[in-house]
């Protein structure tokens, strides 16, 4: 009996009962070779080695079950694998049904690779699937497998590829009369083995992908991005989401602009999907992303890209956050992209800019997206609509206040969103290197972990551990952003020593210190190497700057 489900347009679709059938080896081979059976590209690449493939053939020869293959039969054009190793797979004839493998890709690809004698390069080595053999001297008491990828001296073997492709007369002459009956038995077992298959026909793509996700319990789960890569592929329009995402990150021969050039290349694929969904449906829930029609998604891709670059430009030039690694959450780009899309990619007014800055620091300092992210971003899209109208979104009073005591008690962790918001504040001051007043150059690769080269403990850790027993050196108020070269000059020296040392090479030292929210060396306890006083003074300076961002004057 048929059941009813909802399609993307919310109209009922009749889902036909899955069809159960058995297929022979030759039938599988012919259907792949005619373009009817396809490997969808949201599947994993072919990763089975020769030994795994040998065990599969071994199971078949022993009559063991090897699992059921599940196909999705549809006329929808799905992004699919074009090549297996040195072999190009045929296209499906236009207008014909294709059967996409939802479960059993590695097994079917192994069977096909052996049948075709395919060569695959993996980890710098070539794997030749002709080199899988049937041991014609198999002894069940001493040998584990009939089929192997390694030959032993003194035994007679026949290639599985040859067993499947050569005529019986040729095989008999090759192995000798005493092995002829055994060769015929093995060839018959392979060619007449019943492969169990289930076919679901004309299911909507989102339901077919849901079927795949439910049955693909072994190994790495299918991601939403991988599903959307398959769902949005359109050969006629030249749209391939995987390639477009890579182009967004790294550019291409045709597209010079990229997030990598803007130093925002750590933006994950999920954030990009959410940005498309935000401007398309005002929602970023996974189930709503799956409901976006292919043509609608493709139509909104370029507008999303344009608005995301505008958002990145604003964050870099107006909030002075130069690299994506400092963002409290990569998903902050979603509401910002939404804002600029709805605002026509125009430069924000003075009021809008202040409200966007307030929102940015509010999200980070309050761990806004550390849980229930989809719901909270949906709420924050409404805040963006208020900001477009130059109206302040509603926040609770305690969310817009930071105390010096809170800062003083905050440990430094490069992965903590609250700390990252403070690091964004540091970056926004356009910090200068202490040794020569040059610009501090920040890089994503140098900001990933707390021990990275751009992070410097103003009172070096070794110094604090030696002279301030019971004090913790790894506090955010003790962190400054400087270049690796400047960091190497300081090492474990006392602050009074290296600051005095830098006076000779930096005539603007006091100005350089101010760019790190550090006042005069005397007032901040630097001349006396007073770590406790330094933490207190700098925590107050950080809190004042954050409160100014959280409570803008209009």
Helix content: 40-55%
Quaternary assembly: single chain
Rounded mean pLDDT is: 89
Globally, the shape reads elongated
Strand content: 5-15%
Total helix count?
22
Largest sheet: 5 strands, mixed
Strand order of the largest sheet: 3-14-5-8-4
SS elements, strand count: 16
C-alpha Rg, in Å?
A: 31 Å
Poorly predicted spans: 1-10
Structural class: alpha+beta
End-to-end separation: 65 Å
Polypeptide structure, described:
The protein has 554 residues and is α+β, with helices and mostly antiparallel strands. Helix content is 43%, strand content 11%. It is built from 22 helices and 16 strands. It has helices at 25-33, 50-61, 105-116, 160-165, 168-175, 180-192, 205-215, 224-232, 241-250, 269-281, 286-290, 294-317, 333-342, 350-365, 373-388, 404-408, 417-428, 461-467, 484-490, 495-502, 509-514, 531-550, and strands spanning 3-6, 12-15, 19-23, 37-38, 69-74, 83-84, 87-88, 98-103, 119-122, 125-128, 133-135, 147-148, 157-159, 195-201, 455-457, 479-481. The strands form 6 sheets. The chain has a 5-stranded mixed beta sheet with strand order 3-14-5-8-4. Strands 12-11-13 form a 3-stranded antiparallel beta sheet. Strands 1-2 form a two-stranded antiparallel ribbon. A hairpin with a 2-residue loop joins β9 and β10 (125-128). α10 (269-281) packs across α12 (294-317) and α14 runs antiparallel to α17 (417-428). Mean pLDDT is 89; it is low at 1-10.
